[in-house]
Write a structure and sequence with these properties.
The structure holds 2 protein chains of 2 kinds. By secondary structure, chain A is mainly alpha-helical. Chain A has helices at residues 3-14, 17-35, 41-47, 57-82, 91-102, 106-139, 144-161, 166-180, 206-222, 242-263, 271-284, 297-312, 314-320, 326-337, 344-349, 351-372, 376-382, 387-404, 409-428, 433-455, 462-465, 467-484, 490-495; strands at residues 183-184, 191-192. Classes of the chains: A mainly alpha, B mainly alpha. Chains A and B meet through helix 8, helix 9, helix 18, helix 19 and helix 20 of A and helix 1, strand 2, strand 3, helix 2 and helix 3 of B.
């Protein structure tokens, strides 16, 4: 069966009333998460996983994916109306979006953001359909040494690009990998670091850890921040004028391209594509002085890049099993909870599921456009909800989510402890992304390493005698070396704390 | 990581480095108790040993870097929250811990009802009607949705609630 047939079959599955409903619910919840300042997509996706426990894997993953890209859409509303990004990727949108709102053009800013996001999301999904199957075919030829080297590249990219200090990033990645070692050894069955606590035999649950690091930590930080004033702006006219269309259309195209290509690289994070798209537009503009004063290109380009990135970031996950960001890692966790391992084998073993999820991206983007344009006033009203109620709701879902995965109160304790750790890490600016990625990739990395060494009877040269493995290891070393030499521009490194 | 900064910021990083060493060093010692190699190659202790060792060395290097960094009191990095904010954060943690402790003995609904009320009061909500309605919705309402509709197993306590 060729790609088109798979896609049509996936589309038929995604268009079933049940899956369409899940996509719609996911889009609404995701937009809500994006709209609520402080609650990022990683925490939002994690705390809503319990909603999907009893769904079939296809429905569950369609809903969680919709939550993910819905959150990427929703973050714009707060950026424009209160100058606070609803999620990290909307930081750049604040610059011109907020100025547009102050000038009474908030509706236009939100309108062009929704249109740009739609174009970016649809383009990236089309590219996903084209790129993913051949990439998965290539990845099928990978053996354990290649997978080990590939995961190492992913971790190095996230560590190298994911923060201001390479050393701190490395330590966090190592800590994440070490935490992943807690529990029963997957090869020999020996307990490790379990301290005699039966609840630790299955390891530390990924979801409670992520809920703590992101959800609880965000609430602990939020109680210290003053609340922001919502700008009263015209939300009636959402469509740009002819001149604004002319300015925005090129920016949408360029932002989409930038977001898509950067989405393919693990570790880039959601902020960098938006930042690069913004800077690119400003440099290209004949009137760069308008940027920062309410230039529509300053909203169109980063928003298109943001959603193109969000959809393109699914390519490394679905084809190689490499999550590009903490939010994608949460999605990977959701796959694992459903008994599925993302990667090339998934295309062979469960093509029905993979293609239904991919097809749902098209529907999700259409649903989000419909939800975002006419209902923008409703989303704006959510900003008037008092923060104590939002925080209480978030913590409620965190408790339910942490407990219900294994029906174990111990996991709520894990979440609380991780919340305190996450709070401390945010306060001193230690990067969380490498830790989360290390945690999710740890078991796979260890299994690949040990299987490789078993293949070679303990001889490490297996990683250097296989050409692809060698190339990937050299690439990993180059990424770390470039980061150590501080080759990525400072602005990029500082923008990349996802 | 600060190469210069306030004393408070530097202290925060030093504490973080010491905490990391406090994790990696015991892990290193513990991992020595697992076999590093066996007949088929690397044993259960292989990965933990090297990770702990690398983590401990990197943490020690970072501690040295931070300690030797220039301290510039002119740059204010706020690490410690103000008293009110700290009290609210501690209150949230106490509420969460109490909820965890009572979750199974009392059941979801009886635990969450006071949890939400307490949490809202800690976070600054003052409207008794809004607090009561939110608490009822968050405890009995959410239980109904999750337990009966979504079939998510939430605990029922000794009082049958």
């Amino acid at each position: 069966m060729d790609t088109l047939q798979h896609l049509l079959a996936g589309l038929a599955a995604a268009l079933s009333l049940q899956n369409l409903t899940f996509a719609l619910i996911g889009c609404v919840l995701g937009t809500l998460i994006g709209v609520l300042p402080g609650l990022g997509p990683a925490a939002g996706t994690a705390i809503l996983i319990p909603l999907t426990f009893k769904l079939d894997p296809t429905g569950s993953l369609i809903m969680l994916s919709a939550i993910y890209y819905g959150a990427m859409y929703g973050g714009t509303v707060t950026s424009v109306l209160i100058n606070v990004p609803g999620e990290a990727a909307s930081v750049v949108t604040c610059i011109d979006g907020y100025q547009m709102a102050r000038q009474g053009r908030g509706g236009t800013a939100l309108g062009i953001a929704a249109i740009g996001s739609f174009v970016g999301g649809i383009f990236a999904t089309i590219a996903l359909v084209v790129v993913a199957p051949p990439l998965a075919q290539v990845a099928l030829r990978f053996g354990p040494p290649e997978f080990f080297a590939l995961m190492l590249v992913g971790l190095c990219l996230i560590t190298g690009l994911g923060g201001r200090s390479l050393l701190a990033g490395l330590i966090m990645a190592v800590l994440g990998l070490l935490i992943a070692m807690i529990g029963i050894d997957p090869v020999r069955g020996a307990p490790r670091f379990t301290l005699g606590i039966p609840s630790l035999y299955d390891g530390l649950g990924f979801i409670p850890v992520v809920m703590g690091l992101f959800g609880v930590a965000e609430i602990l930080l939020a109680v210290q921040q003053p609340h922001r004033q919502v700008i009263k702006t015209d939300l009636a006219s959402l469509l740009p004028s002819r001149d604004e269309w002319r300015r925005a259309s090129g920016a949408i195209g360029r932002g989409t391209g930038i977001g898509f290509f950067l989405g393919l690289i693990p570790g880039v994070g959601a902020i960098i594509p938006t930042f690069v798209a913004y800077v690119f537009e400003k440099r290209l503009s004949k009137t760069p002085e308008r940027f920062g004063q309410g230039a529509i290109e300053g909203v169109a380009a980063p928003e298109s890049a943001n959603n193109a990135y969000a959809n393109a970031a699914m390519i490394p996950l679905l084809t190689l099993g490499i999550p590009s960001s903490p939010t994608i890692a949460v999605l990977m966790g959701a796959f694992i909870i459903n008994g599925l391992t993302p990667g090339p084998f998934l295309f062979q073993e469960r093509p029905d599921l993979v293609w239904a999820v991919i097809a749902s991206f098209f529907l999700g983007n259409i649903l989000l456009l419909v939800l975002n344009l006419p209902l923008v006033g409703l989303w704006a009203r959510i900003l008037y909800l008092p923060y104590p109620y939002i925080s209480a709701g978030t913590l409620l879902f965190c408790v339910i989510g942490a407990y219900s995965l294994q029906q174990n109160v111990f996991d709520i304790g894990v979440m609380i402890v991780c919340g305190i750790i996450g709070y401390g890490m945010r306060k001193i600016d230690l990067p969380i992304a490498p830790l989360v990625l290390g945690l999710i990739l740890g078991p796979f990395l260890e299994k690949s390493l040990r299987t490789s060494l078993e293949m070679s009877a303990g001889d490490f040269s297996i990683f250097f005698t296989r050409p692809l493995s060698l190339v990937l290891l050299v690439l990993a070393a180059l990424v770390l070396a470039a980061s150590a030499l501080r080759l990525p521009p400072r602005e990029i490194r500082e923008a990349s704390t996802d | 990581m600060p190469t210069s900064g306030s004393r408070a910021g530097k202290l925060g990083w030093q504490i973080a480095c010491l905490c990391l060493l406090g994790v990696f060093l015991p892990a290193l010692v513990t991992s020595l108790g697992y076999s590093l190699t066996d007949a088929l190659g690397p044993g259960p202790g292989f990965f933990p040993f090297w990770l702990s060792l690398i983590g401990a060395v990197l943490s020690a290097v970072m501690l040295a870097q931070v300690t030797l960094a220039r301290t510039d009191d002119a740059i204010a990095i706020s690490v410690a929250p103000d008293r009110q904010a700290a009290l609210r954060a501690v209150g949230v943690l106490i509420a969460l811990t109490a909820a965890a402790a009572l979750f199974e003995p009392l059941g979801y609904r009886l635990t969450m009802l006071p949890f939400i009320v307490g949490l809202l009061l800690i976070l600054g909500a003052r409207s008794p009607i809004a607090i009561s309605l939110t608490a009822l919705a968050g405890s009995f309402g959410v239980f109904h949705v999750f337990y009966h509709w979504l079939k998510v197993p939430l605990p029922i306590g000794e009082f049958g609630l």
